[in-house]
């Protein structure tokens, strides 16, 4: 539907403000349900500010907006409102793949045009647009085309979120290079991001300020839930939020570069990403919010049916365990990788090994196989200063026959998923992208997992700065030309661009499953994923790689294990959303456990509808999802280090239909550390009037398949 315009110009509302500096005309706009209100004005110094209220309570108090430049005076004071208007909009759309099919996109837009006051000789103009939905608020800056100003070199963005409560906050530090930190849970006033610096052993990290990365989620004393993030991050630096612990204030702190005095370089006209505030009465509503995707532009690619959501296996977990290696044992001779007869015999991506995964996948309703370590260069991929020119994205190792493997997979109805590890050598990858994607197209591969481990080359750039934002986005746009979908690891955070470019299918961007294999701190604690579901997952799909059945893996690493039960590993296929879901363990461990494997065989990956049945941030969550095309439902629930009992109400099921339910739950003696493999499996019939009590062990979970009879 086309947006309907409500005429409001300047004199929208006359209200008196408590702050005497800001008395006067205030522009205000409401969400469709009238629960959220945004007020906007400029104070007596011409400084623009906004206020957000929820159910008549101020939740973001007077918060100032502005920009600082290296090539011009700051735009944060001396401004007057030139024009303003409000319009309502309703523009519902459908996801080509996703957590749901139909997305409601309805809200109110408040657009304000500001100009520098008459005392300034060359008046510049700035527009600020708010969109207010029932589930939150987004706003962004727009710099229109104007005389005497063609380029903005942004030193920093001065966007404030002035909070009214010392919220319980779930956060990771504002690292400019990586998101792979464990979450802390503290009061807002107790955030200390720099405390992470001495205890990190990551491949790359830089924490310059007491700031947090987004999404950052908060819970108030009366149950209010807030999450701060950004949407539509295009040709701009990623935003961290600097924390003023004394005044309970967050302020945007853009990721910079060591190579320039500015953090963003843009030609006018341009818009910034949206700054977002998700608002909910409870934790489940945060997950069900569509705010982030709605703030992105519609699909620019058109038909993307060439990508099919899928489960996949692959040569990956065995290398993290140390069973096999990424590299073959080649040497560089006269500038070329050469087999000098010194192969160590531990290489994982062999033709024989990959065929084994293909056979297993074909037997078990798994449509993809990922192959890491297939191409030359892994002998020098990390730990070296100069990594440009190391990787070749078309040349396989001698023991991997690309023709044979792809032909074999095709005959079995399985697709090979390509892997491109760049070792953060961006220029090498950029030069080879057309050739690499063309090779994929030749072999009928439609998905690539890319990696960016290590410090960025060119030196001085960071993973989350404007340079790399453009690298990630341009790689995906280029891939679409070859009908290739991208699952990026060591990525820039998700900001809903999957709506605009639906070939951006998933990404890492968190501390993933692999840390359980080798992390010196013992791996991800049981509370990790119940936090992730309400923080990182609000940004978009996660390639977490669930499904580890050999949870202790003492034969490979005695000091590590997966810190969940087997039942929780199954539940993750429903709880942690991605259109590509890996069955990450070794084939032999699945074949030794055919009964729990059945859930992985059955579970969907593409959903018509999703419902969050319960949840508290950091404690537990249960999600039900309806599979597209079949009408079957799948339910997954997980808990932290505490055992719990859930009552599940199945009123989301279709009425007058009986479903065969297969329930996979923790056994009576299950425990994430002491007895993680204890699992109980039973079949019963359920319908929309059914209720069920399920016990979850410490670090445990449950999964249910509901198949229409």
CATH topology of the domain at 4-294: Beta-galactosidase, Chain A, domain 5
Distance between the termini: 39 Å
CATH class type of the domain at 4-294: Mainly Beta
Number of helices: 12
**Which architecture of the domain at 4-294 does the CATH hierarchy give at level 2?**
Distorted Sandwich
Biggest sheet overview: 11 strands, antiparallel
User: What percentage of the residues does DSSP assign to strands (E)?
Assistant: 25-35%
SS-derived structural category: alpha+beta
Could you report the average pLDDT, rounded to the nearest whole number? 95
Radius of gyration: 26 Å
Q: Report the helical percentage.
A: 10-25%
Q: How many strands in all?
A: 43
Shape: globular
Task: Please mark out the parts with pLDDT under 50 across 5 or more consecutive residues, or reply none.
Answer: 1-23
Keywords:
709 residues; globular; disordered N terminus; 43 strands; 15% helix; 11-stranded antiparallel beta sheet; single chain; Beta-galactosidase, Chain A, domain 5; alpha+beta; TIM Barrel; 12 helices
Layout of SSEs?
Layout: E1 4-6, E2 14-15, E3 24-25, E4 27-30, E5 36-42, E6 48-54, E7 57-64, E8 67-69, E9 79-90, E10 93-94, E11 102-103, E12 106-116, E13 125-133, E14 136-143, E15 151-157, E16 160-163, E17 168-171, E18 184-187, E19 211-212, E20 216-219, E21 225-231, E22 239-244, E23 249-254, E24 264-267, E25 270-271, E26 274-280, H1 283-288, H2 291-294, E27 310-315, H3 317-321, E28 331-333, E29 336-338, H4 351-363, E30 368-371, H5 402-411, E31 415-421, H6 426-443, E32 447-451, H7 466-481, E33 485-488, E34 504-507, H8 515-518, H9 528-532, H10 566-575, E35 580-582, H11 587-591, H12 594-602, E36 607-616, E37 620-627, E38 633-639, E39 644-649, E40 659-666, E41 679-686, E42 691-696, E43 701-708
Parallel strand pairs: 27-30, 27-35, 30-31, 31-32, 32-33, 33-34
Antiparallel strand pairs: 1-9, 2-3, 4-5, 5-6, 6-7, 7-16, 8-15, 9-12, 10-11, 12-13, 13-14, 14-25, 14-26, 15-24, 16-23, 17-18, 17-20, 19-22, 20-21, 21-26, 22-23, 28-29, 36-37, 37-38, 38-43, 39-42, 40-41, 40-43
Helix pairs in contact: 4-5, 6-7
